[in-house]
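We examine the record.

___
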Amino acid sequence: MNTKSKKMILFAFVAAAVSMPNVLTAVSGPQATVGVTRSMIVETGTTVTIAASTNLLPNIANPRFRWLKDEYEVYGKTNSTYAINNASLSDAAEYTVIVYATGISAEAEPFYLSVYMPVTNSNGGVMATPVGDFTGGGPYNPSCGGSFDRYKTYFPFDGPYTSPASPTYPNTSTSPNLNLTTCTTVNGATLDTAIRIQDNFGTGTERACSNDYCSLENTKLSGATFNALQTNKTYRVTIYFKGSTLGSLTTVTFLWLYY
């Protein structure tokens, strides 16, 4: 690995109009600057092109590039741009690039790509987000039990008739019921999670919290259900996980359903 000299900038271009609070996306022109915009959420099938700026290595002729996905080099990717065509859940990852020349190199701050897939004929979907896109903090002891040493800040979900609707998780069925679960084989058997649903307004009252809920052989996964979403209110869903149980996992995958 070349010695890091200083961090560089990544630009991300998106070929679909998908947005999320605090996540800047673009349609054929506008760009997100990674480091300023740390992460992005896109729907499956979206084409994402990550471009590396060479501005931090000025006056360097013919710089070379090494792309990394979850800290492993992606062989054959040596251009200044990296296209992710037809994004799938497996593309959810931490991406970075090293630009280098003889005797000098610079590595970009990580860019975290999350990917979601709407569920056919249902008001819900599946979401994969990189472990690196979670915020460290803890230990935290949710009311549903357990001690969790890392956690995602939150994802917003809508009550019925919420306006404006959440761009990634809209409640198109206007249902008062929400189920969140990490009961998915994508996570394997090495992941401890807990899920908490809170009001994202007023005092942030906890509405549901669950750990080891799935009734599966793997009891390290969890799910939470809240059956009384209020009209025109947004709810905060926090997914907690234990870093010590991640093993080789690089993403956390969960399912959501309004019903």
